[in-house]
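Q: Structure for this?
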Amino acid sequence: MTDAHDNHDDTGHGGDGAPEEPIANPGLPAHTWRPTDVDPKSEKRAEIQVAALFGLSAVCTILFVVSYFTYDIGDNWSVIGGVGASTVALGATLGLALLFIGVAIIQWARKIMGDHEITELRHPAASPEEDRETTLEALKIGIEETGIARRPLIRNSALGALGLLGLPAVVLLRDLGELPGDKLEHTIWGQGGRKLTIVEDGKEKTVVVPKMRISRDAIGTPILASDLEIGDLVNAQPEVLFNPERYYVEPNEVHGHHLQVHKSKASLILLRMDPADITPGKGREDWDVQGIVAYSKICTHVGCPISLNERTTHHLLCPCHQSTFDLADSGRVVFGPAGRPLPQLPIEVDEQGYLVAQSDFTEPVGPSYWERDYDRDRFGEGD
Amino acid sequence: MKTADVASTNGTEPATQPRGAKTAGAVANWADERLGLGTAMKKQLRKVFPDHWSFMLGEIALWSFVILLLTGVFLTLFFDPSMAEVQYDGSYDPLRGVYMSRAMASTLEISFDVRGGLLMRQMHHWAAMIFIAAMMIHLLRVYFTGAFRKPREINWIIGCLLLLLGTIEGFTGYSLPDDLLSGTGVRAADGFMKASPVVGTYMSFFLFGGEFPGDQIIPRLYAMHILLIPGILLALIAAHMLLLVYHKHTQWPGPGRTEENVVGYPLLPVYMAKAGGFFFIVFGMIALLGGLFTLNPVWKFGPYDPSKVTAGSQPDWYMGWPDGLLRIIPAWETHIFGVTLSWNIMLPILVMPPLMIGVLAALPFIESWITGDKREHHLLQRPRNAPTRTAVMVALMTFYGLSWAAGGNDIIAIKMHLSINQITYFMRGAVIIGPIIAFIIARRWCISLQRHDENKLLHGYETGVLVRSPQGGYAEKHLPISEAEAYRLTARDREEVYVPDSTADASGVAAPGGKRAEITNKVRGKLSELMYADNVQKPTAEELHEAQHHSEHELHELEHQIASGPNKHGPSSDH
Amino acid sequence: MRLLNRSAGRLSRHRRGPIAGLVVLLMGLLMTGGLYAAFAPAQADSTQSQEELVREGRELFIVGCAFCHGQNGEGVLTQGGDQYGPALTDVGAAAVDFQVGTGRMPMAAPGAQAPRKEVVYTDDEIAALSAYVASLGTGPSVPDAELYDPDTLSEAEYDEYVTRGGQIFLANCTACHNFEGSGGAMPRGGVAPKIRGVDPKYIYEAMLTGPQSMDTFSDGNIPPEDKKAVIAYLDTLDEQPSYGGLTLGSLGPVSEGLIAWLIGIGGLVGFAIWIAAHTTRTSRTKDGADA
């Protein structure tokens, strides 16, 4: 073991030995002793302290096991002071059991284990010159023996073959998912009002699918225009999600992840305001029904659902990044990072007075993407 | 055991011959004959580690990672990473009958039907947040003390990669329960991907296995989260530790501590005990957090549904700063040649975070290029002794902190009764002006601290004792500082401003590199000036001698005055 | 800092006991008073009492509300065209019961946000004001307890209502009011208030009438049964224990991040400082050692 004294001698001759150093390195200070080193009583006390900490930890561990079997979870949680007893008791006992062990070990190290600081010399990270030369020599001989420098044909063909192996790695990823196609440009709202050829009783016949009714989200019932009062906001979905048969859609097409995909594009905000408040966009004069307007619920920034509406101002705020849209003015962006207005869905009423979509959205909903052609948006002459 | 025996554990001889020594010896022999442990461990067992609290910050990250592995394994026993739709039929009443993915249902099962499951989930999540936080403060410590300098640049880069991967690992894990909050995060991630030029939609469709959200994303994130990224993390952490052992730990300068040695406690027993004990403390702390504080109550969010959202939709804290930039970026979007460029997404998410990591990774190389310093450094520098370096990081931290605060602008708005719009406008300016102001203040602050140190060295420390002279003037008594303290203050390098070689200029265009090299040199000279010109350099031996002589004289003078002056019985007269 | 209001959730549960007692006491008092009012003075003129109530309400209105809402509840416009106080001709009794019953009206100063305050009027006065404003035009009346009170549900019904209510809540309410009903930020300094621990009647009325900037959820929008389901879900949130420990103010990841930094990292750095700190030293030297 290196003693403090040796260190003192070692470093006594001062730093890098530069003459102009203002203060010479005084060397390591002499070792001083802890009470536990010199006083058997305090030593004994420390020993008991450490042992007691280990003991406390053991107690906590046992309490952990007891809590595990004592406190109920599932249908009938045991509750202490309004919090779930199982989680809190298990966490507290486990935490304390671990903490006590940790503190005990640290106390042991601080009070009882030897505390002489020792010194080790450093070596430069670089290898010694002769080692380097030997290695370089070996490397040179090795490469020489492959003959790679003299035989470019082998070298080039090998590199080519290895490089081409990247191709399978890329090709294999192709089946990760289908290609985008024009999927981002259509939503399930377009399923209403289309013409369809079906086979009934062995005969082909053409039916016109009814226009897509607008239903209350989570509740699932279609909405009559007369249901809504000025100031009403409805979080809505196309009726096909709740009643696929009416629209000649297979029920499993609106279940599971298919349902999620549809909702991620078709979710709708319906708002009834004073018709006098609305400034319809060009070509959008007949897109509302008695002051009821419908907009995509998917933010045009990164796609969060958005329904924080201020009734008094018709401003709709996105809770994720605070883009704000004016629903009385074609969904124009009034604040925040979104770059485009919220897409508006043209609506009307059917014979029974239910609100229906005139067509699909006339532009892609949701966040922008590279291929999204702003000039091709189908809602007329831009906004 | 007698106390006398215990006391001697501090000595070199073992207190008593352990009874099992013979068996232990046999086992050691068996192992050595097969593994050659004797040689391998010869130096390592008593390897020296210097002791300082700031050297333990990386350990917090290391131990959190171990806890993540342990709790994570427990969670995999119950978690089902599937997006198949099921109707929930577990213990949590308000969701019974609701359709959800198996991932969400099994998360609820872990929370409500597995004893200790909720604790493990919360511990895992807390450990993840602490893991990344600890990496960041460790990174700051390494940077502020100059521990990233040669030969440790590679370890610095490994550290930056660990931070990046840790963040991605956190995000993938956060998304796995498939609840409403994490699903909103994944939806945003889908938006980020779609904003990428040219390949965006393809990336999205390939990652999600079709159109968002598809039925593939959870199993794919799961594979990344439990296999791919932890594997890489483990390998990088191993490399990080091996390099640490090879380079030996840096240390603070001080009496007896030089560039050529390392002074501290041996691995066995003290360092091992301290590190091992700290593992239990970190583990215990995380268990306490996991048991006492609710984290991510997925049962209240319910399953992910693309039509639902909640106020206060935020990512975990480490994703907060890009999210903040995403909130304050103006509505920049370009439509040109039939394509769309979403700057409002690309800049905050696709450009800034990689740029930030890139800048971090490049810092050691930029600094060594400016200083031209090619020596190895094992002694740490106090942040004040590298004012420009310190100020650079303070500026980066300010940028980070402001962006981060912008990520919580809605919570700030509610809690401080402010307008979310005003906060956003303010932040737009603040993220640009704030770092500049912070840079200037931090740099000047460091330099003032240097001056303060110099004063202490030259004129002694302020005793706080005021002395009144017979003429009625007041002066504060200064006493010289100790030798050890004085050495500590002067144990640093003298810095030289790099002056571009003007002779190369004069010799004409023949200078290697020509015009470009000339410009590079000029830039380097300017930066070097910024870096060093205002710093206070330590005094030379003569300057110090002269100053000390002067102060001694002054002190003498002062004492003389006190002794002869009218305020003989003043408070200072007992000196 | 109020951001760390993590005892909030717990506190309300602690208060539940004593407050419940208080409520019972108050209800007892009110019932006694109500019975007295019903039977004692004049049973005969119940038709006249409605007119009486309106007249009384009008007097209160002139004194307390007309400054902003106009002498006849027609609303007051300022020069800028901004409303000082909106017209109350078609808001109905429910709106008055909500606004005055929760202390939002009368406001301290005109503004978009009407924070909850101490209630100024007595229940009788509120009833009178409601009757007066209802007499001005159409609008929803104060709902019956049967419409909103989750306690009127049977146990089997309750569970079903809660599940459905949770989904409706997440689809319609959480965007502004947060997943725990702890509130959220709105544009330009607006706030969607905390809606936990609020009397079910007021929640029902708020949905029905759309106070201040809130949208309305009329019966044609969300049917009464579904409103009741939402209230039942909120009731469950109040009733259920905090399964995972303290709830940190239920503000989501921001408060969680603060805890990770302040308690997690702060505590661990504290431990690190302790671990590396020098232990106490003594001037004595060890016997036989020459240090």
